[in-house]
Structures are given as structure tokens and as C-alpha cells.
């Protein structure tokens, strides 16, 4: 029997989506780098982090406006059959640029379009999380300086998470750590 290997697995810190930890409405492709949500639900990354400063890029493959696509982080208590950001165990950016946790959206950034690169930085020493787009951090955030974060007080073991709340299909791809398009914040490590 042939074994299909993930061609990106050799890249240190390269995150992939977890085929064993996803809602049935999530389809994975592209070596588990691309997740497509056809209904409400989510998927967690294979790897988790519990310490350190990390930076990840994720280009939106299908966004088509609207807020129902969500990308961010979650802990192991997040229920994958629910929408990311819909409980107190996940913290996300929506396709319309709003941040969301506990099913409470708040104005934060600008909307995403197909091909836009979503940037995520997390400092688990300070417990802070930032989101940005196309090389610019939302809300004048500065991960290197530790200012204007989207969320604070985060701790524990965390995973990347993606999914949607409702509406039409949404998809996102975890960027290859070897070819990120934007500058990694000073002191942060690429990947997850």
C-alpha cells in the first residue's frame, strides 16, 4: 500500500490541519494545508503550542465577502462542531475584519478578499494575540512592541483553528513557512 506523505512536513514549524480533529463539513486538501468549510464547524491544527512567540500566514482561498469565514486560535476544549469564535475557547478574525470570541464580534480590522494573506502573531509569554492583512497589523498593532493586540490573557495549549458560522463555502490555506510574504515580527518564530 502506498503511503501519501505531506510534502511540507520537512519544513520546521510548518502547520497543517488535522484530518482527525475536524467537523464533517470541513474538507482538507493540498497536503492538509487547505481547509474548506461547507457548513458550520471547524478544524484544529495538528500541532499545538503552549509557550513562545509565533507568527503564521494564511492566504484566504475563498472569502467572497461576509463574516462567516473565521481563522484564529483555540484550545482543546473548543467544540469543532461549532463555529470558531463562537465560544470562550476560541479567538478569531472574521472575513469582514471583525475579531470574535464568545460569539461576540467587535470592530478590529478591514475585510478580506480572495488571495489576501491573513497574518497571526501570538506571544504566549504575555498572552497576547494580533491579526493583520497584507503586511499591516490591524488596529495599529505591533507584536514586537507588545501593543494594540486583539486579545490578551491567553494561556495554555493552543491550536490554529479555521471554520465558518454560516453562508456559502469558505477556504483558507496555511502558508508555507519557507515562503512567507511578509516580515516576521522581531523576536517571533515562523510557523506553529
Question: Which tags fit this structure?
Answer:
globular, 41% strand, 0% helix, mainly beta, 192 residues
Number of helices: 0
| Helix and strand element order | EEEEEEEEEEEEEEE
Number of strands: 15
Helix content: under 10%
The overall average pLDDT, rounded, is: 90
3D structure, described in words:
By secondary structure, this protein is mostly beta strands. Helix content is 0%, strand content 41%. The chain contains no helices and 15 strands. The protein has strands at 17-22, 26-29, 34-37, 41-49, 53-62, 69-74, 90-94, 99-101, 104-106, 117-123, 128-133, 136-137, 158-164, 170-173, 189-190. Strands 2, 3, 5, 10, 11, 12, 14 and 15 form an eight-stranded mixed beta sheet that branches. Strand 11 (128-133) and strand 12 form a beta hairpin. It is globular, with a radius of gyration of 15 Å. The protein starts with 16 loop residues before the first strand and ends with a strand.
What secondary-structure arrangement, pairings included, does this model have?
Elements: E1 17-22, E2 26-29, E3 34-37, E4 41-49, E5 53-62, E6 69-74, E7 90-94, E8 99-101, E9 104-106, E10 117-123, E11 128-133, E12 136-137, E13 158-164, E14 170-173, E15 189-190
Parallel strand pairs: 5-15
Antiparallel strand pairs: 1-4, 2-3, 3-14, 4-13, 5-10, 5-14, 6-7, 6-13, 7-8, 8-9, 10-11, 11-12
Give a brief outline of the structure:
With 192 residues, this protein is mainly beta. It has strands at residues 17-22, 26-29, 34-37, 41-49, 53-62, 69-74, 90-94, 99-101, 104-106, 117-123, 128-133, 136-137, 158-164, 170-173, 189-190.
Amino acid at each position: 500500500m502506498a503511503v501519501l506523505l505531506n510534502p511540507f512536513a520537512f519544513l520546521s514549524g510548518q502547520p497543517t490541519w488535522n484530518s482527525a480533529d475536524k467537523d464533517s463539513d470541513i474538507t482538507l486538501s493540498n497536503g492538509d494545508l487547505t481547509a474548506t468549510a461547507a457548513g458550520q464547524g471547524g478544524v484544529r491544527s495538528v500541532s499545538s503550542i503552549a509557550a513562545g512567540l509565533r507568527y503564521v500566514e494564511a492566504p484566504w482561498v475563498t472569502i467572497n465577502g461576509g463574516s462567516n469565514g473565521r481563522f484564529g486560535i483555540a484550545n482543546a476544549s473548543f467544540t469543532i462542531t461549532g463555529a470558531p469564535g463562537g465560544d470562550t475557547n476560541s479567538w478569531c478574525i472574521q472575513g469582514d475584519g471583525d475579531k470574535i470570541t464568545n460569539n461576540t464580534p467587535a470592530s478590529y480590522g478591514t475585510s478580506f478578499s480572495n488571495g489576501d494573506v491573513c497574518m497571526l502573531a501570538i506571544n504566549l509569554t504575555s498572552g497576547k494575540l494580533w491579526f493583520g492583512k497584507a503586511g499591516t497589523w490591524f488596529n495599529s498593532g505591533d507584536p514586537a512592541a507588545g501593543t494594540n493586540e486583539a486579545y490578551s490573557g491567553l494561556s495554555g495549549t493552543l491550536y490554529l483553528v479555521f471554520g465558518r458560522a454560516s453562508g456559502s463555502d469558505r477556504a483558507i490555506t496555511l502558508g508555507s513557512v519557507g515562503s512567507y510574504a511578509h516580515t516576521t515580527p522581531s523576536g517571533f518564530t515562523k510557523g506553529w
